[in-house]
Amino acid sequence: MSTTKKLLSITVPCFNEEENVEPMYLALKIIADSNKHYNFEFVFADNGSSDRTKDVIKKIIHRDKRVAGVFLSRNFGPEASLQAGLDYSTGEAVIGIAADFQEPPELISQFIEKWEKGNNIVVGLHPKIQDNLLMFVMRKLFYVVFKKISNINIPTNASGLCLLDRKSLNALKALPEKYRFFRGLRAWIGFKTDYIVYERRERVKGESSYSFIDYIKHAERGLFGFSYLVLDTMIYGGFILVFLSFAFFLMYLFTVLVIGNPINASIPLMLAIVFFGGIQLLAISVIGKYIQVIVEETKSRPVYIVDEIIGKSKK
Fold first, then answer.
1. CB 72 within 8 A of CB 303
2. What is the pLDDT of residues 134-156, one digit of tens each?
3. Which of 3, 102, 125, 134 is 20 to 30 A from 198 in CA distance terms?
4. Model-level pTM?
């Protein structure tokens, strides 16, 4: 009977986290050292940091053979470092956790327990999050809209903190698309999924690299990558507007023939031009966004480019 322990991978995507990398490693080390049932590897994926993040990771690698570093050639966006960490993890299951400590590392043992019960995917949920009013409303609105227009179900405030077993990870890696929305893809592949609810912490050290524009672009990836309802709505809306316009034309023609022209047509004509011009501009913009997705996919560029790999993990 084999006594070989299974290998679990913990991947930590990083971008300008020089103050958090060392504390995160120490927290993960305590968890790994206290777990006698599994071997662990730690994969730090650096997304082209401009501070000392890379140097700190290298120092940790020299101290601990379980640690590997995947360093991207530049910043490829928020999805890239997580994807790189998943790609270069070799464990039976992979846990992804951000380096900023907003997601408690001590939850990892609970994720492992859920996996041991037969779940392929375990996802963290943070119902309460410290946001300003604008971000709170926009975040809620995104998940409400996404649930309505897409054919997959993502729980409100599902986080990037999750566990994927090897089967689900291989399925995720096999998806060829470049315009990636990780939370959506994670739900799309299916498999048995469970959830862990936790309270998301405030960032203590460093500053978030996520800007308001980044959140907008991230939302676009989900909305335009997982639904065609916006295009369908444009078609139905176009038919409705054409019908209403034709009905208005008949009513106006009838009025002119019966009682003459009772109104000055310049104002309604101007309003109609502005209204329909706005509708056309909006429709063209939506079509343009879908074309952008198509262009990104047809380019077939990789999601990221690796500059250097240090440590034992190989793809």
1. no
2. 666 666 666 666 666 666 777 76
3. 134
4. 0.72
Asked if 233 contacts 43 with a C-beta cutoff of 8 angstroms, the reply is no
DSSP 158: E
Written as one letter, the residue type at 39 is N
What fold, for 6-209+302-310?
Spore Coat Polysaccharide Biosynthesis Protein SpsA; Chain A (3.90.550)
Question: Which of 64-73, 172-181, 183-192, 208-217 is predicted least confidently?
Answer: 208-217
**Separation CA 40–CA 61 (nearest Å):** 14
Task: Write the DSSP string, 220-256.
Answer: HHHHHHS--HHHHHHHHHHHHHHHHHHHHHHHHHHHH
Helix H or strand E encompassing 196: strand 193-197
**Greatest CA separation for the chain:** 98
Residues 80-86: what's their mean pLDDT? 87
**What is the SS3 assignment for 93-148?**
EEEECCCCCCCCHHHHHHHHHHHHCCCCEEEEECCCCCCCHHHHHHHHHHHHHHHH
> What is the C-alpha to C-alpha distance for residues 75 and 53, in angstroms, rounded to an integer?
13
- How far apart CA 89 and CA 95 sit, in angstroms, is 9
Q: Is 163 helix (H, G, I), strand (E, B) or coil?
A: strand
Provide, rounded to the nearest whole percent, the portion of the chain with pLDDT above 90: 11
